[in-house]
Amino acid sequence: MMPIPLVTAALLATSLQSAGDPVTFSFAFFGCDRVDVGDWKKDPTSNPSSANRQEVERSIHDIEAIQPRPKILFLCGDLVANYAHDQGEVLKGQLAAFRQLVDASGAAKLMKVVALPGNHELNQKHDDQKLPNPVTDPIWTEWASAAGYAEFAGNGPKPGDDAEDALLDDQSRLSYSFDTEGLHFLLLNTDTRTTTKDRKTGEGRVAWVPAHWAARDLDKAEHDPAVRSTFVLGHRNLADPDSVAGDSPIDKDCGDVLLAAIHSSSKCKAYLCSHVHAFDAKQIGSAWQFIEGRGGSPFEKGWEPTEGKTFGFTLIEVHASGRIEAVRYSRSADGLGQVNSVADRRWTVSQ
Fold first, then answer.
1. How far, in Å, CA of 180 to CA of 157, rounded?
2. What does the pLDDT look like over 306-348, one tens digit per residue?
3. Does the pLDDT value for residue 12 go beyond 50?
4. Which among 272, 192, 216, 203 has a CA at the least distance from the CA of 239?
5. Could you tell me the domains of the chain?
6. Residue 15: predicted pLDDT
7. Exposed, middle or buried: residue 202 (CB in 10 Å: 0-12, 13-18, 19+)?
8. Phi, psi (deg, nearest 5) at residue 16
9. 82: closest CA among 102, 100, 96?
10. Strands 324-332 and 342-350
């Protein structure tokens, strides 16, 4: 008899364990769906969304096939390429086409779709500088609301809420929180417009989050007996990944505040994000950070996982016992191996 590979054996053992402890709630997430900006500009009319349509469609199809089907699909930013130095015309066209892609998949009829903005949606590029684009906040907000991807938005921070967050505009529909089935979800715009200036550019900093508002939100959930577990989601990573060097994470000044708030929350189980075009899992205090940036963008240089480069997504499972697991789903990126996403690794996030 051929020996069972260790990864397969581990997954089999976990599946047998789960049979007596069924999944009662699950949700999936991934981000970084866009193609390379330069490549898209060569022929924008052939792919108006600027997303890697083949890979986005495959991930959504495979998520829909999971049983029990996830209740929520979080799209964690950089859905489109954008970065245009304009009045939002490019972003509007790309987002409209991206919605058509999701609508065609039928995903929004089968599960709740929630979209978070990334730096490519909200920033612009001037030569080598990446700066906030003031016109993009309302464009994103209106699009996400019209598409039904921001159903829970509205309770987020405003400039007068906390002077320490230095908000430049109303962020109540870009960062917000909601509860469902005993879980608390805190969604963060990781490119919040701020009055805090960047020394190099003289403009408002990029990679900013309303960290003090988020800390209060986490503390409120911590003391709410109806909340069993909390998850924080954003686009940019909070901690540097171990698997590869990534692009700029959340600004350290506000990031340290957010990280401290996560550390002090016993209910906070994970910070879930993308931004880095790779997969990475690491503990940040008692919680986990999962980077799921395999949505379709060109992979980070230097990311060389032993199992080979893969596209895919991550599923968070909440079991009847309260146990929480993160399940990575992967498929071959070279088109020569596994076509459909399969579960290839699990992490126990909480017992």
1. 20
2. 999 999 999 999 999 999 999 999 999 987 778 899 999 999 9
3. no
4. 272
5. 25-350 (3.60.21.10)
6. 52
7. exposed
8. -65, -40
9. 96
10. antiparallel
